[in-house]
Specification:
alpha/beta; Alpha-Beta Plaits; Rossmann fold; 8-stranded mixed β-sheet; 7-stranded parallel β-sheet; 17 strands; disordered N terminus
Length: 480
């Protein structure tokens, strides 16, 4: 991804999260909201908002290289061609549970489905499948993590997603089918603040022990300004599954800054390296990602050797993504996600609710819980996430709030841990974080703060003795 160099003097300015300028009612309802009472998308985890329905956008032509340029074009076929169908063989893998969206769930693309088949089907088999079900292929990719091939299909004739899923699930050549869910980044509007996270996480003492040297952290988010003075030299590689113009975005830039800032700010793991995955495409000042773009980001990050994957977004439970996360965890990748900004009445949001993921909530300068945070027993730990001073595109800085940034801090601590103990498995890293967190709220672990406020220094100190709390952990996701 080519990013324009911008020589703009660093100017500290107090900005809000929705487009970093909340001077209008529309901005105040910014797209970065953490939870939903409606809508149909996944969002990044900043502050609570109730996004407006997204306008319909014509799907782009696929990017993946297929058998030939001709095969990449979207084709509408209403009648099967006689005598040329070459059907897929029935799947040898067990049929997954139904992919129908839960009742009332609307956070998905209204005219698309994601289909999964075993192995790598031929071009003829794919075209026969499309004709049989009267669908148009938008893009496809084989995934090493799952050992399957996934397709994003357009429904050209007005059928609803649920009816198409029912029809496809009757086809025994298809391993699974589900909606193409939408996710949003989790950010919020806020007021003044300082870089208090440095002291809260005890970073000065922690950095005497480790700085995350060369640990690869994949940031699945919106575009990152790699030329920002805080981030120069930190982006190891970049991937753009969302397409678009590739421009940097406030949310992704701030997330990368929370992890690895190294100029006027102090990131949690300033010597770590960022794998920038632009899976969220800016829409109305915010950013939106779908099942398929996030899946491609997970696959790419795993292939690049990511040790930690930060997911500061939230949305509906996603069966295919859950299986990919389980596969990533088995490979030793630490998965961290924002708990979400939908507030105390919201059910758990995904991927934070996944058992293979470390769910992070946000606290403020006074160790009080961010009022927009999701609650639940899946919450693992808390970290600073209210009124944070972080980099934004163009060399500037903004004051930003949300569980998104709390998650980024914990991803950074995971990198510090892995620098000292590179052989630790994800469940062991989780145990380090939980066993060394400073208890907040009611005594013991609770649904608001999890195990308490993450402590980078204490986490590293605990590794010196290889305490029983972390050594010998054998169950993936243990300690949840």
């Amino acid at each position: 991804m080519q990013l324009k160099r911008k020589r703009i003097a660093i100017a500290f300015s107090i900005l809000t999260v929705s487009g970093l300028a909340a001077s209008s009612p529309a901005a105040a309802q910014g797209y970065y909201g953490g939870g939903y009472s409606g809508g149909d998308r996944y969002i990044v985890q900043s502050a609570p908002a109730n996004p407006q329905p997204r306008r319909t956008v014509k799907p782009r032509a696929p990017r993946e290289a297929q058998a030939s340029p001709k095969s990449q074009r979207t084709r509408t076929v209403t009648q099967p061609a006689p005598g040329v169908d070459e059907p897929l063989q029935p799947s040898a893998q067990p049929r997954q549970t139904t992919g129908l969206p839960p009742a009332g769930e609307r956070r998905f693309v209204s005219n698309e489905v994601v289909i999964e088949v075993a192995g790598r089907p031929s071009q003829q088999q794919v075209e026969a499948l499309a004709r049989r079900h009267q669908l148009n292929r938008q893009e496809s990719q084989s995934f090493e993590l799952s050992g399957t091939t996934m397709f994003r299909w357009n429904i050209p004739d007005g059928r609803n997603v649920a009816s198409v899923i029912r029809s496809l699930e009757a086809d025994n050549t298809i391993l699974s089918v589900q909606p193409n869910y939408r996710y949003l980044l989790q950010q919020a509007k806020n007021a003044d603040g300082i870089q208090y996270a440095v002291d809260k996480l005890r970073l000065p003492r922690a950095h005497e022990i480790a700085r995350g040297n060369r640990i690869l952290i994949a940031v699945i988010d919106s575009g990152i300004d790699a030329d920002h003075p805080e981030l120069r030299g930190t982006v190891e590689d970049a991937f753009d599954p969302a397409g678009g113009d590739g421009s940097p975005h406030a949310h992704g830039t701030s997330i990368a800054g929370a992890i690895a800032a190294g100029s006027k700010l102090t990131g949690v793991a300033p010597s770590a390296r960022i794998l920038a995955v632009r899976a969220f495409d800016p829409v109305s000042g915010s950013a939106e990602g779908t099942t398929f773009s996030i899946l491609k980001g997970l696959e790419w990050a795993a292939g690049k050797g990511a040790r930690v994957i930060n997911m500061s977004f939230a949305g509906p439970k996603d069966p295919i993504m859950a299986r990919m996360l389980a596969a990533a965890a088995k490979r030793g990748i630490v998965l961290v996600a924002a708990a979400g900004n939908a507030g105390p009445k919201s059910p758990p949001l995904f991927p934070a609710s996944d058992p293979n993921v470390i769910a992070v909530t946000a606290t403020d300068l006074n160790d009080k819980l961010f009022q927009g945070s999701n609650r639940g027993h899946h919450v693992a730990v808390a970290a600073p996430g209210v009124n944070l001073l972080l980099p934004v595109p163009g060399g500037g800085y903004g004051m930003i709030t949300g569980t998104s940034f709390a998650a980024a801090h914990v991803s950074g601590i995971a990198a510090l841990i892995l620098e000292l103990e590179p052989e630790l498995k994800p469940d062991a890293v989780r145990r380090v974080l939980l066993s060394t967190a400073r208890d907040l709220g009611p005594a013991g672990r609770d649904k608001d703060f999890g195990a308490g406020l993450a402590d980078a220094f204490e986490a590293l100190q605990s590794l010196g003795g290889r305490s029983d709390a972390i050594a010998g952990s054998t169950t993936q996701g243990g300690g949840r």
